[in-house]
């Protein structure tokens, strides 16, 4: 028995969107790796069941008009890395709303968002929360004002523009120095591209420092990958600085907890991720990263109509290991969330997501890459062989179809888990 979406309550000044005659509505928040694939997965499931938008409408809300391939934000040329959401959602009949989600009312089944400078709300029958994660900014003096990052497309473009303009600044001791803080995968990928970016800007003798709390940069990547990472950093002339704690950042560099000063006109913060703060609006206990606990169906534990996927959610992917904030997990979580949100709405059995493999393919700039497999990170390949795998992932495998063809787009989002990435060498 289908029910009608109730008209959204309209407190003064809030526009309503919900009484337009659509029988039921699925709202997807975010159109990143988890959200876009949720929306396509839901459209695919409805298409398979022969249900049109007159019976179940899918609405995707994102604050930009783009599907950002966030994993490429460390690259020197970001032109053309993103995909227009309309080119993917338009052909499959998903309604796109551009705006910033500002609240979720689980009891009232409504989402608040701001668009064109005005507050709006939209009612839902089923929700997929996929607003992702954000770079964590600890309260270090000067960090928010002076540090750069590669967390979003806009931030990454800002960093690249700043580096390109460095030679035109007044000369300073740290003009040719970039300090990257955070020696995890994002920091390593950001750092290994920076010598090339500095040289392209006309800085003949660049200095790049990669600093972390941990004594050895890259140790988290496993015993097999560690020497590969160290070799690549050395070959690229990057100084690995372990055991470092940044106490303050300013326009001319950073001060360490020891009082030592690193002169650097560019500080790039890559240390830690937190789930989107709106996860706090769900009446469930979140993990230490702020993520929502979900069933293998991607339905939020303990809630009736709300699903979550990607960096904003966690579950045990193989019954043992916790999902990782990654596009590797975000995309299948999205496809299954999309499929299952439709099944749940239409009272059909849902499919549990199980992922039995885990890989890490880390870009190491012009040196190549390193590919590990398994939760114990066994070395698979390195150098140019691993780089070929990385390029296929970043430029083909993780993209939605760009043909604009409805059938191709729908077929790309079935509730299945891909095979691990191809190996070379
Ligand atoms: C530089 C870098 C390199 C990475 N490399 C890898 C890698 O090699 N492999 C890997 O697996 N993972 C990698 N990751 C992690 C990966 O990018 C994330 O895990 C992934 O993007 C998570 O997908 P998501 O859909 O949950 O979130 P996101 O991709 O961040 O998408 C969230 C979406 O929500 C939108 N949004 C956010 N807040 C609001 C709001 N209030 N209102 C409306 N819209 C909003 C955003 O615009 C965005 O479109 C990397 C990350 C970075 C930054």
Query: What is the domain tally?
Result: 2
- Assign the CATH class of the largest domain: Alpha Beta
Structural class: alpha/beta
Assign the CATH architecture of the largest domain. Answer: 3-Layer(bba) Sandwich
Helical content band: 10-25%
CATH superfamily of the largest domain: FAD/NAD(P)-binding domain
Average pLDDT works out at 94
Strand order of the largest sheet: 6-3-2-10-21
Q: How large, in whole angstroms, is the Cα Rg?
A: 22 Å
- What are the segments in which pLDDT stays under 50 over at least 5 consecutive residues? 1-19
Number of helical elements: 9
- Fold-level CATH name of the largest domain: FAD/NAD(P)-binding domain
Q: Which term fits the overall shape?
A: globular
> Main sheet, how many strands, which sense, barrel?
5 strands, parallel
Number-wise, the strands total 25
Ligands bound, unique: flavin-adenine dinucleotide
Describe the structure.
This protein folds into two domains: about 15-135 and about 275-355, FAD/NAD(P)-binding domain, CATH 3.50.50.60; about 135-270, FAD/NAD(P)-binding domain (3-Layer(bba) Sandwich). Helix content is about 25%, strand content about 25%. The protein has nine helices and 25 strands. The strands form eight sheets. The protein has a five-stranded parallel sheet. It has a four-stranded mixed sheet with strand order 1-9-8-7, with no helix packed on it. Strand 13 (about 205-210), helix 6 (about 225-235) and strand 14 form a beta-alpha-beta unit. The longest helix has 19 residues, at about 325-345. Residues about 1-20 have low confidence and may be disordered. The structure holds flavin-adenine dinucleotide. Flavin-adenine dinucleotide binds next to helix 1, strand 3, strand 7, helix 5 and helix 7.
